[in-house]
Amino acid sequence: MLAYILRRVFQSALVLLVVGLVAFSMFRFVGDPVDNMLGQERTQADIERLRDTLGLDDPFPVQYWNFLGNAVQGNFGVSYRQGRPVSEILIERAPATLELAAVSGVLALTFGIGLGVFTAIRRDGFAANAIMTLSLVGVSLPTFLIGILLIYLFSVELGWLPSFGRGEVVQFGGWSTGFLTESGLKALILPSITLGLYQMTLIMRLVRSEMLEVLRTDYIRFARARGLSERAVNFRHALKNTMVPVITVTGLQLGSIIAFAIITETVFQWPGVGLLFINAIQFVDIPVMAAYLMLISVMFVGINLIVDLLYVMIDPRLRGDPAKGH
Amino acid sequence: MRRAWDSDLGWSFRHAPVAVVSLVVVTILVLAAVLAPLIAPHDPFDPATLNLMNGFSKPMEPNAFTGEVFWLGTDDQGRDVFSTILFGLRISLFVGFMAVAFAMLLGITLGLLAGYLGGWVDTIIMRVADVQLTFPAILVAMLIFGIAKGITPPEYRNEMAIWVLIFAIGLSDWVQFARVVRGATMVEKNRDYVAAARLIGRTPGAIMMRHILPNVLSPVLVIATISLALAIIAEATLSFLGIGAPPTQPSLGTLIRIGQGFLFSGEWWILLFPAVTLLALALSVNLLGDWLRDALNPRLR
Amino acid sequence: MKPHHIAAAFPLLFATAAQSAEFTWASTTDPQTMDPHAVNSTPVLGFLNNVYEGLVRRGKDMGLEPSLASRWEPMDGGAGWRFHLREGVRFHDGAEFTAEDVLFSWRRASSTDSDTASWFAPVADMRAPDPYTVEILTTAPNPIFPDSIANWMIMDSGWAAANGAETPAKDGETFATLNANGTGPFRLTERQPGLRSVLEPNTDWWEQADHNLTRATFTPIQNPATAVAALLSGDIDMINPVPIQDAARLEQSPGVRLIRGTETRVIMLGFDQSSEQLLSGDGANPFRDVRVRRAVAMAVNVSAILQTIMRGSAEPAAQLVPDGIRGHSALYAARPPFDPAAARALLGEAGYPDGFAFDLKCPNDRYLNDASVCQAVVSMLAQIGLTATLDAMPVRNYWPELRADNFDMYLLGWSPGTFDAEHPLRFLAHTPTDTLGTWNFGGYSNARIDALLPQIQSEIDETTRQAMLDETAKILQDEVAYVPLYVQPLLWGARDGVELTQRPDDFFMLRWVRVDD
């Protein structure tokens, strides 16, 4: 078991190195940061001096090595755009993204499971079919368009909800939260719906199909035959059996929530790391881009590792087959 | 054809009105895209035919300056929205189909290899798959696009954009295929008939192609359908981030991105019609995929 | 962590505060630093002009006004300029403003780490005969020097020294990156880069304040559609810019209004005039032939662009500077006529009766509707047989491409930082050298222009100077060095009840803002 964990951790570290290398090799193609750092009255000499200061003319392996060396010490350099340490900026921005992701995750799980169970039990009912079809509408439009349409409807036309930002936030040490003010809570509604819609549909469909299968098993038939109420059968027995795949998929989907947060944050001007990343691309802020991508991959690889290890713990038979997927 | 109609699948299809409607919609849209050069009243990709003064014509109303009438109006460049949608649909479908084909090819090959050979080949492939699965498609696409843009000479950039999209979307989608195929392969390879085939000297390649592959086709088909819808939406999402088809040769996604800029200004048709087309396409494909999944799942019948 | 959210933690307290004149505004770009000498860009200088002040400043009509200098005069023999400083002015931290701060700010703003060093290129030395007089010596007589330092902001030498911010930093952080200590009408009380920046009135300001604000909050909103939504839904009091297409909607919507003006930025097409061949390598470079350049100028229907893409919000341009800028030439204010037939004839004369194909580079996030304008240009040129391949890209890729000569034709916008016609001559028309013609990507070169530039720079007599500027305007037009298209509009949106002043340099000055409730 220990050997297996070590092997997996080692593999993950290797993966991180490769991701970092690929990401880093991209930066030279994103654009040239010096144009954003110098005004219109700059001379060629200014450009060259700045490129030299930033080490942009160093050979690529040297740049990557320097970056890695600093990164393992937690030093991601200084943002070209803001002139401040990248780690400080990321810590400032992280709560916004994490709160948004958490709320949309909860929304997706609550509605996804609820509707999934409903559509499975009333498999051929009109309401269930309508929900199934409608849920597909949500995933048949790009996220950014859904966000913009929500803003148009709820902010501009109806004036119910704020059109951008986080509202007022309260500071607790290094953590800023929007959960404690009315405007903060209101501001969460539209972005979290936008972000959670896709996951909700996914979870709902997964729960439904797992439920349908479980409901046909002998185990459930037996439970019914024992005279248990429909409610008890559905929730206590059937739903419980669908939870393992749902949790797995939700775990894996965390990554895509964070990624799609880029789009949602851009549309709603949500001040999280996704927006920071888009800004960084716009201004060729290489240190911020590098740190963001590294953090994201650490997180993704970490989630993957945990999911795998959990599998192994739950089901020892898998130990001989570590790469077993779902 | 006749046999397909009479098969179980055909029976299930005839009794699923949603599936029938979806198929009709998809067929119409695909035909419209394929025949676009023949049926579109204008060629939106030929700049010489555009008249800027036709810009912002309302649907079905004569333009204030030129008097020309456009069914679905025109955009800011004076392009006929209807024609632009047809040509945009062509690009979106092309990107979608090619991306899925690429993902299928890659996923099935790697899945078969991993499942059949096992050992370190399996470990490597599935480790890469793990990373790929967690690394979001849009980030992958942004990375690839950035690199491709840097190394392509300017005169090929517009053509390049389409292929990069296909590559990027396909690359982020192969894992599902690989996982399904691998799982099925691992089950099948221990069956007696495979052992028998091996005994009579069939090569592993032949065994994979002739015996194992046919057994995994139906889940692959389901995944492919859903992936097609996802790929078309992914293309639209990427174009919002400025990655994708150039504005002179817009895809549906690019049209929507352009159109959303006119949402508040009252030129609703520039956004609405491409968005509805995209919705109709993706929704129909999704519904078909849904039906297919249920229909091909023997345990649900 | 710096932000103070005490008000937010006590909603009741906040509610009472809201009754005073609070103001929020949004723009697409966050000022990247609070250091007035680190970055020379409109977002930074515009924002900081509310906090810091220079010796001189610009009024509502862009005219020069006394600011920290109460008056100034040229020194004998054109040796330089003498500025008499205002007495009794205090920085926000209470320190007194003296000549020492001016000298310090000169050293700081002209150091190699500063982005504003070029303003001081003509300065030979600066000295302070007494604490309220500063003499700036120039290398040659320099009639427009006061105009060129309106954005040179004065920082307190003691504050900078105490906080280790003696030099600006481009690739690092100093205390002045996040904090500000000026003499201006507003103090910076909160700064969260990319999120919000809060200003509060400086009650000790040397001038009677025109505004009635008690607090002003700036939020960057990148997506223009989101910004419009925020204004329409009342979340924000003012936005800059309003997307051109949304201007009409704002004009019609109750509760909001549109403030329309023109910027000083001229949008133009430039040509590669130095390469022997086109980018594709197929054949000799046609743009070296003035007839081809003129054909392009005559083929572009500027009024159609203005009517549709710019929706009637912009003015046509015929020179590198718009009307109203000092030195604009009234004699050469007409654009070449739109005449595709004549353009075709010119192409035939030049030996290209069937046209040719070339590469057109264009930014897609730099100027208002830039990519749309380029697209329209492509289709207009197609009508005279020229096949342009449009390569539109974000500005982060654009300038490197232009610097690397990867273009046949390109789009450029230029705003004269000094509000004088000399400015674009120096950057766009002079033959490229290390320090001159630094934005002349196409390599246009004319010996007469090169000879006139230094004379224009040091000519004191207005009439003689204007004659020389007229001559340069004529040369540039005759040779079609550039094809000026139009002057970029300024479109701001504000809710009703907000009084403000729009200045052509796109600076939003809070000291002229009044809020009615």
What is the element layout, followed by pairings?
The complex is a heterotrimer of chains A (326), B (301) and C (517).
Chain A: H1 2-30, H2 34-37, H3 44-54, H4 60-71, H5 86-121, H6 126-139, H7 143-157, E1 170-172, E2 175-177, H8 182-215, H9 218-225, H10 230-268, H11 273-282, H12 286-314
Antiparallel strand pairs in A: 1-2
Chain B: H1 2-6, H2 8-14, H3 17-34, H4 36-39, H5 81-117, H6 119-134, H7 137-151, H8 157-171, H9 174-188, H10 192-199, H11 204-240, H12 252-260, H13 268-296
Helix pairs in contact in B: 3-5, 3-13, 5-6, 5-8, 5-9, 5-11, 5-12, 5-13, 6-9, 7-8, 9-11, 10-11, 11-12, 11-13, 12-13
Chain C: H1 6-9, H2 11-17, E1 22-27, H3 42-48, E2 56-58, E3 64-66, E4 69-74, E5 80-85, H4 99-109, E6 123-130, E7 133-138, H5 145-148, H6 157-162, H7 175-178, E8 186-192, E9 196-201, E10 215-220, H8 224-232, E11 238-240, H9 247-252, E12 256-271, H10 290-299, H11 302-307, E13 315-316, H12 340-349, E14 357-363, H13 370-383, E15 387-393, H14 395-403, E16 409-414, H15 422-429, H16 447-458, H17 462-478, E17 482-495, E18 498-499, E19 514-515
Parallel strand pairs in C: 1-10, 1-11, 14-15, 14-16
Antiparallel strand pairs in C: 2-3, 4-5, 5-7, 6-7, 8-9, 9-10, 11-17, 12-16, 12-17, 13-17, 18-19
Helix pairs in contact in C: 10-12, 15-16, 16-17
- What is the mean predicted local confidence, pLDDT of chain C? 89
Helical stretch tally of chain A: 12
Low-confidence runs of at least 5 consecutive residues of chain A = 318-326
Number of domains of chain C: 2
CATH fold descriptor of the domain at 86-286 in chain A: MetI-like fold
What is the CATH topology of the largest domain in chain C?
Answer: Dipeptide-binding Protein, domain 3
